[in-house]
Each structure stands twice: as C-alpha cells, then as structure tokens.
Amino acid sequence: MPESNSTDxxxxxxxxxxxxxxxxxxxxxxxxGATGSIGTATxxxxxxxxxxxxxxxxxxxxxxxxxNLNCLTQMAQSVQDAPAHLxxxxxxxxxxxxxxxELANAKVSVGAEALVEAAIDPAIDIVVAAIVGRAGLESTLxxxxxxxxxxxxxxxxxxxxxxxVRERIEKSGAEMLPVDSEHSAIFQCMGTCSSKPKxxxxxxxxxxxxxxxxxxxxxATPESALAHPxxxxxxxxTIDSATMMNKSLEVIEARxxxxxxxxxxxxxxxxxxxxxSMVEFEDGSVIAQLSPxxxxxxxxYALTYPRRLPCQSPPLDRTQxxxxxxxxxxxxxxxxxxxxxxxxxxxxxxxxVVNAANEQAVGLFLNGEIRFTDIVQTCRRVLExxxxxxxxxxxxxxxxxxxxxxxxxxxCGQIA
Length: 416
Ligand SMILES: NC(=O)c1ccc[n+]([C@@H]2O[C@H](COP(=O)([O-])OP(=O)(O)OC[C@H]3O[C@@H](n4cnc5c(N)ncnc54)[C@H](OP(=O)(O)O)[C@@H]3O)[C@@H](O)[C@H]2O)c1
What we know:
The protein is an alpha/beta fold and 416 residues long. It folds into 2 domains: 7-178, NAD(P)-binding Rossmann-like Domain (Rossmann fold); 184-311 and 324-411, RNA polymerase sigma factor, region 2, helix turn helix motif (Rna Polymerase Sigma Factor, Chain: A, Orthogonal Bundle), CATH 1.10.1740.10. 42% of the residues lie in helices and 15% in strands. It has helices spanning 37-52, 69-78, 91-94, 113-120, 137-145, 155-172, 181-190, 214-218, 222-225, 235-243, 245-257, 296-304, 336-346, 350-366, 374-385, 394-411, and strands at residues 7-10, 26-32, 57-65, 85-88, 107-110, 126-129, 149-152, 175-178, 199-204, 265-269, 275-280, 286-290, 327-328. A hairpin with a 5-residue loop joins strand 11 and strand 12. The two termini are 34 Å apart. NADP nicotinamide-adenine-dinucleotide phosphate is lined by residues 33, 35-39, 65-68, 89, 130-132, 135, 153-156, 180, 231, 233-234, 236-237, 295. It catalyses: 2-C-methyl-D-erythritol 4-phosphate + NADP(+) = 1-deoxy-D-xylulose 5-phosphate + NADPH + H(+).
C-alpha cells in the first residue's frame, strides 16, 4: 500500500478517540463512499440497527465523500454518534469544505490516500466498500490486508484484482461479505448446504433496454439508459445495467468471490428483480433467495452476519398474484455477457483492462461523445489490443488501468 501522504485538517478539539461512557459493544464502521446510493442506504441501515439491536452500538466512525460534501455533512449529522473521522477524497472539492459545529471534533483528512488510512484504522471493525469504480481498489485491498470484515459493494475491486484479494484474505483472515444483491443471495443460498455448489445462477433485470433492438440501442440517449425499471442506483452502475456490463462484472465478481470457474456460472434474465440469484446443487436442487428490490437487506446482512434482524425493506406482498419469469439472455443484443465470461475465464490482466475501458467509455457516453452501443464494442477492442499477462502484480494492473483509459479515448477518436 502507498505510504500515506493525505492531509489532515483539524477543526475544534478532536476528541474522536475519547473512551465512551456507553458500555454496549460498539460495531465501528467505516463507510467509504458514504454519499452514494449504497453509502446513504448504509447510513439508513446503521440508524435502523440502533433501533432493532439496542444491545450493540452501531457507529459510523468514519465516512468518506468525494464531490458531494453537502451530502457527507447530512449523512454525518444523521447518525446517533457523530463520526470521528471524515475523509474528503477529492482535494479540490475539499478546499471549500468547513464542517458544521456539531462535527467540529471530527478529524478531517483530505486526499485519496486518506481512504486507505480509514480502511486500516485499528478502531474500525467493518469497512463498507461503497466507492464506485477502480477508485475504491486501494482502500478495499487495504481493508482485506488488515483483516477487516469488508461489506463489499465495490465489485470493481474483485474484477480488477480478484486473485490479490483472495491472497490477502488468506493471509489476514479478513471476511468478505457481499453487498451486491445477487452475490448476497448466492451467499445466503450456499449457507443452506455444506457441499460445493454445482452452478451459480445470477439473475439480471435486463435493464431498461431488455426489449429494445440493436438499432434502437444505437440511438439510446443517456436519459433513457439512466431510467432503470427496478433499481435506483448511481449513474455508472445504471449504465452498466443497461449494457449488461454490470452482469459481466458480476460474473467476474462471482468467479473470485466464490472461487468457482466461469463455466459454473450462468445468467438468466428475471425482469421483476425478486429472485436475486440461485444456486444449483449436485442433486439438482436449486435454492433461490427472494426479497423486494431493496439494497438495505443485503447491506444489513453483510453488517450483522450471521445474525438476521428485522429489516426496513418491506416484505414480499403475498396477497397479489406473483409474476416471476425467467428468460435466457440475448447475447447478440447484449455482447457484454460474452466479454464478461471470457474475462472470468482468462483472469490475469483482462479484468483490469475491461473495467478501465468500461469506466472510460461510460463517461464518454454520458457526455454525449459516443453511442450507447460503442461502450461494449470499445471494451472488446481495448481488451484485444492489450498484452495479456496471466499473473500480474498490483503495479502492472494499475499501469494497465491507466493504459486502457487512454486506449479507450484513442479508440473512440478522442485523442490521436
Ligand atoms: N447502487 C446500488 O444499488 C448497487 C448495487 C450493487 C452494487 N453496487 C456497487 O456499489 C458501488 C457504489 O455504487 P453506487 O450506485 O452507490 O454509486 P454512486 O451512487 O455513484 O456513489 C459512488 C460513491 O463513490 C464516491 N466516489 C466517486 N468517485 C470517487 C473517487 N474518484 N474517489 C473516491 N470516492 C469516489 C462518491 O462520492 P461523491 O458522491 O461525494 O462524489 C460516492 O460516495 C459500485 O461499485 C457499484 O457497482 C451498487
């Protein structure tokens, strides 16, 4: 991990480490990406747990925001115990930030390196990895290296560096608890049986373009791609859902999370987003996990595992007729799926390259620079243009991430 050179700013008396009078065991949580869709839902869950689990003190001890620092303030003000540490990962946005008086005792750290500091803080029990994209990699890896329980939303860490994550967990004894609803579902289904699964079946909503032709998708606007039919999420994952690159990233995530080869993973389309995924066992039994599409359930389970506590997510409405359909993915209209399976099969540097190309291409699409269907085609081209290595170091993966972003710009005619 890089040596820390983050900047700390001190406002007030900075008594975050003062022993508390409260004798209840504390669950000290670092929410990295507290201002995002998963981050704000996590804050909601923490507040809820303090109601339904009063024998523990659920505490957001540290919280990070990047650009949306008003939201960081709101999150920090909404919890029972004010965070002892605020991380402002974007130095430019941090320049004008001044915490309100009730947060004056918090330590404030600025810069990306401060995310690593927060992740390895000995006072932290659980790290919620909720930063979007490759930006969450170093802090998530650091949390694994330091033996934390990691509630993992940042799937990109496993996509880029799955084997390095597994290595760190083996050495440190860290716990990896999935937050992605599909992987949480599989994790819950596997808990019902001690045998290795025969197959994992990931469900996909199909996104907003499930029934669109390729010609229609060619002309898709950012607004239409951002209108997800069942989930409210941040913009990057919402576009990934529309291209089905999100499902590809999830196939790669599942490959490393559950240490199963790609040919034991399948994807089916389930537009209602009620069955979150399934596991098939050797005897042919298929176990599924069902709940309404609400991320507070998998987030809470990752925090409280192995305990199950009442959740804010509403129960399934059993007074209505259930319409639960499963259909195969049309891989011609959604070529991202083949790409994801290929990356899951070959591993090595492929994940880092495809992830970076996708992040860059999604940005270009949102800025109106490329067509919707160019996103996946560009990822394929960039993957094919790179020099594959089977057992790369972290430095090589980061170097290739930088290369793939530039190569994406080149392939899209943005630079010479
Ligand atoms: N949303 C979901 O339902 C869902 C479901 C499953 C998995 N996930 C995964 O969870 C992760 C977060 O997704 P999301 O939907 O919550 O995204 P989001 O709403 O866009 O939030 C992203 C978070 O990351 C922060 N951030 C952005 N760029 C950053 C950078 N360069 N350095 C540090 N922090 C940065 C943002 O800060 P600011 O807002 O302050 O700029 C925000 O806190 C993704 O990996 C996604 O795939 C999300």
